[in-house]
């Protein structure tokens, strides 16, 4: 399996801040700019990749892939309003609805518009499979907690869901539903060595602790997530950064 990104990659603070970037290379075609965007993305140089995808869009404004790639990079650099605009364009061009709805829900979540996030994740649930569905439940659950409510999607979780590689989402949902105790969940989190899994498990668990009024425990988990930043492009890490460093 090809690595998610290069061993030599941009750090979180270089991509999640306000630094301005310029492209130092050029291309003369849509495919050329798309290839450049892909190469930059592999190094997590998302701010520069956005510029490359914008060049591709300027050359071929009716092609969906550049909007989809640029929207993803806007989302991963915590620019949710710009991401939403690109995902809306993809939707108008006939893009994959479950993929777009999931990321539009995240755009609303990162924007702090939790009621809209809940609505979008409910729509996502209606059009997606279990693997994406457990993510919709997870994010809807946390968004609802922010509003002092419970997510309508929690009722659909069951242990036979085919969650695929989204086991971290299932871990947080199962904790909230009482399948195991908070103490057991924290021990499981502490044993997690993978930074991607830790961020997703941890963000859900931190939200659950906050829901229970355990503010110090929630904050402690969030600080650990930020310290383990190798996989900073995970939605759990980004959500933590967005909450703590905005």
State the distance separating the first and last CA atoms. 35 Å
Helical content band: 55-70%
Which percent band covers the strand fraction?
Answer: under 5%
Q: Count the beta strands.
A: 0
- Return the structural class: mainly alpha
Main sheet makeup:
none
Uncertain residue segments = none
Principal-axes shape call: globular
Radius of gyration, in Å, reads: 18 Å
Mean pLDDT: 96
Oligomeric state of the chains present here: single chain
The sequence of SSEs as H and E is HHHHHHHHHHHHH
Instruction: List the total number of helices.
Output: 13
How would you explain this protein's 3D organization?
This protein is mainly alpha-helical and 246 residues long. The protein has 13 helices and no strands. Helix 6 packs antiparallel against helix 7, helix 10 packs antiparallel against helix 11 and helix 11 runs antiparallel to helix 12 (215-227). It is globular, with a radius of gyration of 18 Å. The two termini are 35 Å apart.
Write the layout of secondary structure elements.
Layout: H1 12-15, H2 30-42, H3 46-59, H4 64-76, H5 80-92, H6 97-111, H7 114-127, H8 130-146, H9 167-176, H10 182-190, H11 195-211, H12 215-227, H13 235-245
